[in-house]
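Bumping with the actual sequence this time:
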Amino acid sequence: LAQSFRTQVATSGGVSSNSLAQQNEDFNRKILLMVELVENRSAHPFGMLYFDYATRIVNSPQKNYPVATEYFLAASLAFLRARDESFLNTSLARLSQLCFPNLKADDFAVKPVLDERFAQLVEALDKANVNGKHTVALMDLRRGILEAKRRAKAK
């Protein structure tokens, strides 16, 4: 609906499709930056929320490990931004102990956001890795993802 409206406005206003595409990209980028700004300012509450969601999913009878992994990755990133080492370490441990052993290669194909979240977390941990503080966590994350991507679905 929004795209249809933008097209109508552009055609009636004489705006070129290239100009409209550029404005649309700028608009989308600004929305993503606003979301990131809000998450950064309220990192700890977001981290707690994501951690709670992930924990509920892992503890539910119908465990959805890809979704839980996404939430634990998001929680870890939020706790890193909030500089809460205790919850960061707990969230990273839950990823390694509960999620990575239960992920399969197909999960990454079905849920590509896992790769994106993983890359964001690794990049942030690399930047925050002063004096090797997160070296072990980075190695565990990379190993866990690599093993999960090698694992085929059970027949």
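The tokens above came from a reply further down the thread. The first helix runs from residue 2 to 13.
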